[in-house]
Design goal:
180 residues, alpha/beta, Cytidine Deaminase, domain 2
């Protein structure tokens, strides 16, 4: 298992990865990394567009699909600034990150902030991962930094289109059982 200090350092690095997004990407900015069972960094990823498209590529998917060979991720850890997505009832093109994490054999997910979109209301990402037997840990000490630097600013009129994607007052806070 990864130490709290190592998780903290890796999450700080994920925050920096997230900030390297294209200027055309709207918030949330997301950074992720995959660690082997022994703690070796295997791959990194950020939320971005698929090349020559307007389809978004999630950070967790980018990191996982960069692990070569794929078997190195088995029993590993993924660290991500945002709770991984779950299946949406909308026209979702790709498998959700929570399913992809299971397919790669990841045993632990460490995340910074809860996802507040329609597809992940009430901690659905946490619930989906835990139901698959994956340990989920929220690294709460960096949530404020992630919220202020990577998440949409709800007070900004410039982000009106983003706000439409975020769930309104019906959101109930859900916390993972284990926290650092």
């Amino acid at each position: 298992m990864i130490t709290k200090e190592a998780a903290h350092q890796h999450m700080l690095h994920c925050i920096e990865i997230a900030k390297q997004v294209s200027p055309t990407i709207f918030k949330p900015y997301v950074g992720a990394m995959v660690l082997s069972q022994s703690g070796e960094i295997l791959a990194e990823g950020k939320r971005d567009f698929y090349e020559n498209t307007k389809w978004l590529y999630h950070a967790e998917r980018a990191a996982l699909e960069s692990v070569k060979p794929r078997s190195k991720a088995k029993n590993g850890i993924i660290i991500t600034t945002l709770e991984p997505c779950v299946e949406s009832k909308e026209n979702q093109l790709f498998r959700p990150c929570s399913k992809l994490i299971k397919e790669y054999g990841i045993s632990t997910v460490i995340f910074g902030c809860l996802e507040k979109s329609r597809s992940n209301a009430n901690g659905d990402g946490i619930n989906a991962l835990e139901k698959q037997g994956i340990e989920v840990i929220q690294l709460t000490e960096l949530s404020d930094i992630i919220q202020s630097e990577l998440m949409p600013d709800f007070n900004s009129r410039k982000l009106y289109s983003t706000i439409k994607q975020i769930i309104s007052g019906a959101y109930k806070s859900h916390r993972s059982k284990r926290k650092y």
